[in-house]
Automatic annotation (TrEMBL):
Example GO molecular function: DNA-binding transcription factor activity
Keyword vocabulary terms for this entry: DNA-binding
Organism: Paenibacillus hemerocallicola
Name of the protein: Helix-turn-helix transcriptional regulator
InterPro entries: Cro/C1-type_HTH (IPR001387), Lambda_DNA-bd_dom_sf (IPR010982), TransReg_Diox_bact_type (IPR050807)
Record lineage: Bacteria, Bacillati, Bacillota, Bacilli, Bacillales
Length: 75
């Protein structure tokens, strides 16, 4: 499975655990809602700035977010 797909799955999982809509997360992270959707579907690659913005709004460290993706990719 591609890194983009796994990142999107993890992003969606964490966002839903935090009970945020795509629109709410996008607003908080100062991103476009459609970009969140594209990330969650694995259609876009997040930049480092995006990873930091999303992690900050999801109350998770950027390194933890990357670690979660890394764990799934290695399986």
């Amino acid at each position: 499975m591609s890194i983009e797909i796994v990142f999107g799955q993890q992003l969606r999982k964490i966002r839903e655990e935090r009970k945020l809509s795509q629109e709410e997360l996008a607003f908080l992270a100062k991103l476009d809602r459609t970009y969140i959707s594209l990330l969650e579907r694995g259609k876009r690659r997040p930049t480092l700035n995006t990873i930091f913005a999303l992690a900050g709004q999801l109350n998770i460290s950027p390194s933890e977010l990357v670690r979660l993706v890394e764990e799934k990719v290695e399986k």
